[in-house]
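#onboarding

Welcome to the new folks! Below is a worked example of what a typical request in this channel looks like: someone posts a single protein sequence, and someone else replies with the predicted structure as tokens. Don't worry about understanding the tokens yet, we'll cover that in week two.

Example request:
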Amino acid sequence: MADTYQASRQWERISRHWVTEEAAVDLANFKSGRPNHKISLWNPEVNGVRYLKTLVHNLATALGPADWERLRRTTHRDVGNPIAVRVGGESICLDYLQATLELRFIEQSVDLAGASVLEIGAGYGRTCHTLLSNHDIAAYCIVDLRSTMHLSRRYLREVLDDARFAKIRFVPVEDEDVNAALRESEFDLCINIDSFAEMAPETARSYLDLIGERGTALYVKNPVGKYWDQSLDGHVEGDDALRRAMETGLLREVLDIHDDRAVRAAVPEFIAAYRPGDDWRCVADAWAVPWSFYWQAIYRRGRPSTGPQR
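Example response:
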């Protein structure tokens, strides 16, 4: 019986290499170091996929029935082999989970039936895919860099049927004068998700001016500021990449992005920075789940106001 209560072979190895007597000598950093990676949590430096899947699973379990309907209507989501989990029999990845949450937020303030949509910086096209799959969008214009547009055009051609794909107009910024290309266009909804913050400030302002002239509503989702926390990614892309990232966007103040008070203190400047013009007002804003330092807002064009603007 005495032999029954002994360490398993697995824990014999852990005790030799991780949870050693030496680990108890200095408690200063043990909770973020090797001993605790075997006691309480997986090492985040090598378990990124595990944590990502956990995040997606937890977020998916909080979706409501209407969210699941939005997802199910958006077919072919597994094209491209995303990192996904299964919840309720449905495969779901973080990209389309975010797209579903974004659409829920937009629907609360904007009537999308028969809408004409402009998206600036569409990535590979998941927002376009989700909107066209869930609403009778009349026209969808994507303005983007040519290199990214090669990917979005190919992807959207793969996941959409002919009728929906035919509604999309692609405007590469290198090949056309964007203002001239959109001169005759009016948009019920303009969208920017996570790209104004990566543009030169003057470029972002030019797009906001264009939206102010051509749009009726704007949905924007971007960071409220910058961060310089080496513990998050080890600054693996080097100093040049960091300098370039710090130069972009309208909101360049460095803050602790995992301090909710610091993030919320930056929200008023976010709301002001993305208002397209004096005759626009913010009609809704909220934290953009799941990223701690992202905010989302809906603006609508209306009469100029002399009072404080949201």
